[in-house]
Amino acid sequence: xxxxxxxxxxxxxxxxxxxxxxxxxxxxxxxxxxxxxxxxxxxxxxxxxxxxxxxxxxxxxxxxxxxxxxxxxxxxxxxxxxxxxxxxxxxxxxxxxxxxxxxxxxxxxxxxxxxxxxxxxxxxxxxxxxxxxxxxxxxxxxxxxxxxxxxxxxxxxxxxxxxxxxxxxxxxxxxxxxxxxxxxxxxxxxxxxxxxxxxxxxxxxxxxxxxxxxxxxx
Length: 218
Known about the structure:
Layout: E1 2-7, H1 20-30, E2 34-39, H2 47-50, E3 60-63, E4 66-69, H3 71-80, H4 90-121, H5 127-149, H6 162-171, H7 184-194, H8 197-212
Parallel strand pairs: 1-2
Antiparallel strand pairs: 1-3, 3-4
């Protein structure tokens, strides 16, 4: 049985964005059932979890073939066995893999620089100046992505793949900054991906866990 390790609860700003969502989404697209292994923020620091995830994060994924951490690696592992997420032809598979890495290496760090600063350092005296340069870098990458997607529904071929799953997962974060205002085409692309029933099921599954473990009011 496939198992996804996820948190029991996170603060409101993180709900719907913890990266086990990517794995849940991939499994839903592939039509594969899974179980949850839930941990809290103390358990993530314990030796048994660190032996599975050296950076004290989630998700961790386990199936009959082995155990993985890092959401991108897990999504690609699931996609390799799923025609719903990966095309059959070798050259097309290579392109999907390239775009999966592009989502995580060429786009996500620039998005995270902006959203992470806003969420955790927004009141710092240096934040305003840093955000100006970080947004400029993010927008430059988004402009390049927008240029590639012009006239396309998805990144490669004519259908949704694992690369779109990862790219849309990254782009969702931009809504925190209102960054879609300059890129309505990327907003439409992200909406097209996240309107899929598999995403809805994955999101509902994550949020259900958080609701069940909501801390009692102090």
